[in-house]
Design a protein that fits this description.
CATH topology of chain A: Rossmann fold
Helix content of chain B: 25-40%
Number of strands of chain B: 14
Radius of gyration of chain B: 20 Å
Number of helices of chain A: 11
Distance between the termini of chain B: 44 Å
Strand content of chain A: 5-15%
CATH class of chain A: Alpha Beta
Structural class of chain B: alpha/beta
CATH architecture of the largest domain in chain B: 3-Layer(aba) Sandwich
CATH superfamily of chain A: Thiamin diphosphate (ThDP)-binding fold, Pyr/PP domains
CATH topology of the largest domain in chain B: Rossmann fold
Largest interface: A-B, 50 and 47 residues
Strand content of chain B: 15-25%
CATH architecture of chain A: 3-Layer(aba) Sandwich
Oligomer: heterodimer
Largest sheet of chain B: 7 strands, mixed
Helix content of chain A: 40-55%
Structural class of chain A: alpha/beta
Number of domains of chain A: 1
Shape of chain A: globular
Number of strands of chain A: 8
Largest sheet of chain A: 6 strands, parallel
Number of helices of chain B: 12
Chain lengths: 322, 328
């Protein structure tokens, strides 16, 4: 795999820690009873999201899922707006009408966050089709889990994307669980990426906990898409280190699986890579401290922000009432 | 002005919208020149003008078709997606209901979804249970979508232009039996605003509230009953949802009697919502209960005589009107 330059490594590290610290903060707020909302933890998958977003340009489109905190914050949604939405406030990206499962921020390219497994892939094709039609040079990345690979829309979208050579990247975050069902209990094929061949599309399985695998794989897919060569399926092997959603029981995870995922935790691995590239402990700690300060300020802002006006339930239904 | 068929009317509306706005494009099964311009020829001749990128023939993948339309709409284009037959919406309801209809609201107004879903259906041509249903009530029950259906070529042209202009999703229902109807071409740029009903015929004894192909039945019955001295007003909704409540209520307040009529099955049909609303808001003007006619509550049958028995008939309409007037 190609070497990643230091600037890009720093970029990926910063995004990764932003995702991780946001996740930690969210769980702290939920645990402390300060907030009671649905939240789908991303612990264990931070690097996949961060590396993927670091491979995109600012204008590129992203479609993600309810477990999309990683893509959303790593792509760069302003933290105050992100927290505002998650807490259901008028200052949120969607005025508090979307919530944690439907974060949308076109300014940073987060076009859809879907709460329906597998529904993002067909929509990503459409965003990419628009780019192909108008020649704006954008690519679209859609993120989804291994569970989504078994719904019909996945197959329809993969076939259509390859047929039209759409500039789209299908990023499957294979976190070994579809909701509460283990991979082996929902799929008998050894991996998801092999399915790409069935559509005439390149597919690759990489270690999502290794920055030297995940970043180059997504970058190559992005470059291919931008060159007009069509879509790629990138399967990033990773672990969902928590339950399906915050508070959900995950005692069903076998001890050996838990031991394996702890050994493969992307954060210590990434820190090691950073130190190998002559970043110092102090530098890395300072980045995290800065992120924490930003997150704390954003959370305070969101907690103090006003609730949406009740009249909002009648607005944005159709244009006439907008 | 020249006479045009409804097929030509739709084609002209799409053609002129594509000529004016490079963001308008069509996608769907068999829509391009290679497949003959659509099974009902609505997109005939457009591939030659605008190329295969703007008349995209798709695989048989309804979820991918509507998903692609949603995505393209979010990116600022104006896709016209064709679902060949209305029953096939069952394949892609998630994209329509959970995404197209809700993304404007759930994003706090940031991502409107301007797209037209053209679809065809109709009872009376022997297509059987999975190719004939009118399913407009499914969509009328969902906030965030316009549901439109023309009953004549001029409205087809005008409603299609207005649907393409709209900044929200539109389900545009074309009745197979209406494609061949001929009428005067209203000409380039003609638009019929969404949400505006038409008084297809003025009358004073009873209002029939209907849309699509059954407007023709209502008009035929009105002609016949006029000879018996019964004056029937026919309201053509044109936009089924959200519908033109003011026109409907004004008509019923004037005539004092109402009959809802649609080809879709009667239970839980749009007629039920219309009747309930009329009774709530026009109670003092009503001279009797609102009556409803709809298709039989079973699957659309194949054999021709069964199909004709299944569908609302003109004698049924006459009977209901006379019952309402106490003239049976």
């Amino acid at each position: 795999m190609a070497e990643i330059d230091r600037d890009k490594l720093l970029d990926i590290y910063t995004r990764t820690m932003k995702v991780n610290r946001t996740d930690e903060k969210f769980r702290e707020l939920l645990m402390g009873g300060k907030v009671a909302v649905m939240y789908y933890c991303v612990r264990g998958q931070e690097l996949v999201s961060a590396a993927a977003m670091a491979a995109l340009e600012k204008d590129d489109y992203v479609v993600c899922t309810y477990r999309g905190q990683g893509e959303q914050t790593a792509k760069g949604i302003p933290m105050e707006k992100w927290w505002g939405e998650c807490l259901g406030k008028a200052t949120g990206t969607c005025k508090g009408k979307g919530g944690t499962m439907h974060i949308t921020d076109p300014e940073t390219g987060i076009m859809v966050t879907t709460g329906v497994v597998g529904s993002g892939l067909p929509i990503a094709n459409g965003l990419a089709m628009a780019s192909q039609n108008n020649g704006d040079g954008r690519v679209t990345l859609v993120s989804f889990g291994d569970g989504a690979a078994n719904i019909g829309g996945f197959h329809e979208a993969m076939n259509m994307a390859q047929l039209y050579k759409l500039p789209v990247i299908f990023l499957c975050q294979n976190n070994r669980y579809g909701e509460h069902t283990a991979y082996a209990d929902h799929t008998d094929s050894p991996n998801i990426a092999a399915r790409a061949a069935g559509y005439g599309m390149p597919g690759v399985t990489v270690d999502g906990n290794d920055v030297h695998q995940i970043y180059p794989a997504v970058k190559e897919a992005v470059d291919r898409a931008r060159r007009g060569e069509g879509p790629t399926l990138v399967e990033a092997m990773c672990y969902r280190m928590m339950g399906h959603f915050f508070g959900a029981d995950f005692s069903y995870m076998p001890p050996e699986h838990i031991a394996e995922m702890k050994a493969e935790d992307p954060l210590p691995k990434l820190r090691k890579v950073m130190l190998e590239h002559q970043f110092t402990e102090e530098q890395l700690d300072a980045i995290v401290a800065d992120i924490d300060a930003q997150i704390n300020a954003a959370v305070e802002h969101a907690l103090a922000a006003p609730l949406p006006d009740v009249g909002e339930i009648y607005k944005d239904v159709l244009e006439e009432t907008a | 002005m020249a006479q045009i068929t409804m097929t030509q009317a739709l084609n002209l509306a799409i053609d002129e919208a594509m000529a004016e706005d490079p963001g308008v494009f069509c996608l769907g099964e068999d829509v391009s020149a290679k497949q003959g311009g659509g099974v009902f020829k609505v997109t005939s001749g457009l591939t030659e003008k605008y190329g295969e990128h703007r008349i995209r023939a798709t695989p048989i993948s309804e979820t991918a078709i509507i998903g692609a339309a949603v995505g393209a709409a979010l990116a600022g284009q104006r896709p016209i997606a064709e679902i060949m037959l209305m029953n096939f919406v069952g394949v892609c309801m998630d994209q329509i209901v959970n995404h197209a209809a809700k993304l404007r609201f759930m994003s706090g107004g940031q991502t409107p979804c301007p797209m037209v879903i053209r679809t065809t259906t109709g009872v009376g041509v022997g297509f059987g249970g999975q190719h004939s249903d009118m399913l407009e009530a499914w969509f009328a029950h969902v906030a965030g979508i316009h549901v439109v259906t023309p009953s004549n070529p001029a409205d087809a042209r005008g409603l299609m232009r207005a649907s393409i202009d709209a900044n929200d999703p539109v389900i545009f229902i074309e009745n197979i039996l209406c494609y061949g109807l001929k009428a005067e071409d209203p000409g380039p740029g003609y638009r019929v605003p969404l949400g505006k009903a038409a008084i297809a015929r003025e009358g004073s004894d009873i209002s029939i509230i209907t849309y699509g192909r059954t407007v023709l039945d209502a008009l035929a019955v009105a002609d016949d009953l006029a000879k018996e001295g019964i004056s029937v007003e026919v309201v053509d909704l044109r936009t089924i949802a959200p519908y033109d409540e003011a026109t409907v209520l004004a008509s019923v307040r004037k005539t004092g009697r109402a009959l809802t009529l649609h080809e879709a099955v009667r239970p839980f049909g749009t007629g039920a919502e219309l009747a309930a609303n009329i009774q709530e808001k026009c109670w003092d003007s009503l001279k009797g209960p609102v009556r409803r006619i709809g298709g039989t509550f079973s699957a659309v049958p194949f054999a021709s005589h069964l199909e004709q028995a299944w569908i609302p008939t003109k004698p049924q309409i006459v009977e209901q009107i006379k019952a309402s007037l106490g003239k049976l």
